[in-house]
Amino acid sequence: MPIYHRLGEMPKKRHQVMSAPDGSMYFEQLIGNKGFVGPSSLLYHRNYPTHIEAIKDLGSCALEEAGQAELRHRHFRTGEMKTGGSVVLDRQPLLFNEDCAIYHAQPDKVDDFFYRNGQADELVYVASGSGTLKTQLGNLDYRAGDYVAIPRGILHCWEWDEEPPRLLIIESRGYVRTPSQYRNEFGQMLEGAPFNERDIRRPGSLQSFDEKGEFRVITRKADRLTEMLMPHHPFDVVGWDGYYYPWIFSIHDFEPKVAAYHLPPPVHQTFECEGYVICSFCPRPFDYGKDAVPAPYFHSNVWTDEVLFYASDEFMSRKGIGFGSVTLHPDGFPHGPQPGRMEDSVGVKWADELAVMIDTFKPLKVARPAIEVEDQDYWKTWQP
Fold first, then answer.
1. Distance between CA atoms of 142 and 250, rounded to whole angstroms?
2. CA nearest to 121, candidates 220, 257, 212
3. CB neighbour class for 96 (10 Å; exposed up to 12, middle 13-18, buried from 19)
């Protein structure tokens, strides 16, 4: 996000000595993407951020394709997937390609380690639940409907309130950001954008730890997990500033565009990524023109695979889905409203739906765990 932010203490100038109360030096660390020319932040640590006392390989986390190459529309019931365990180690893969991987997670155990994704940004949609994302750059409170953006390399751990969260996790090989068409040449959100900087929640409190002991850090890199043992608490940052940090945007703050006649999905775009886009379908008035057909027209996803995560039980053009359903409509043949949905939408005044759409520009592969929860007859629901 191109918004400058700062928390805690730091020296007046960058790369200048910063002394602790006992006279020792704090240690500066730059974290950012694209070498030294992308978005970055400067962190000030109590200890060496490089101090590691043991390294252990935990094995591969590479995704395995299901092997069912048949081209068809697919429906996965994530509510039937394996739940529990760790939000990091037990997330269940659904779909993937070279640009992104999509997972479902419903953990029941707070991790006793800190996590760093060293190969991807993470954009996490909170389908249900609430709690706190704790990071080395400060804490963020999350709740249902939030998109939680965690840039690559940010140490973090998930905690929750009474009920564990249900999460849709998108691992992105590229940088997750707001769409360029919503920003001016200076990076500011435009007046006509469907949300603006006031809607972005940034870390609000920095908790700096000065603790010694054994602290586990698990890093995902090159499709493997590595455990590193640090002799000090990794959240020892006393201050930082910059443009590279975790942030939250709520789907409930997205302002849908409405027209007399149907507008195509790009008007719902919420995030821009390398090789794919993410859109939000939110409650809104239906198209109001004379004899308008609010349900989308039939269309072919040429050069695009379309994924929808249904965050409510309702969707204007779809039947047979429910909260937590995930559908895949691949490039190759048309899709659109199922029989009766187009006709039933005429004259309806309000769309009471909530969904996350992921459109990828490269074909998606189905992960093995997804096949176990697939509605094998979904493609037949277009039969009159």
1. 9
2. 220
3. buried
CB 231 within 8 A of CB 49: no
CA atoms within 13 Å, Cβ hemisphere of 45:
17
C-beta of residue 68 within 8 angstroms of C-beta of residue 370: no
Tokens encoding 174: 């590229």
At 153-182, the pLDDT tens digits run: 999 999 999 899 999 999 999 999 999 999
DSSP letters, 362-373, are: SPPEEBHHHHTT
CB 44 within 8 A of CB 9: yes
Intrachain domains 5-67+80-250 and 255-382 with the same fold? yes
- Give 33-76 as a DSSP string: STTTTSSEEEEEESS-TT--SEEEEEEE----B--------EEE
Task: Please report the pLDDT score of residue 175 as a whole number.
Answer: 95
Note the Cα 21 to chain centre separation in Å: 39
Q: Which CATH architecture has domain 255-382?
A: Sandwich (2.60)
Amino acid letter, 4: Y
Q: Which of 374, 322, 303 is nearest to 76 (CA)?
A: 374
Report domain extents, the chain. Answer: 5-67+80-250, 255-382
Distance CA 361, CA 307 (A): 12
In the chain, where does DSSP find H-type helix?
341-345, 368-371
Which two tokens mark 205?
């409190």
Q: What is the CATH number of domain 5-67+80-250?
A: 2.60.120.10
Q: What is the pTM of this model?
A: 0.95
Cα-to-chain-centroid distance, residue 246: 11
- ∠ Cα 118 171 157 (to 5°): 65
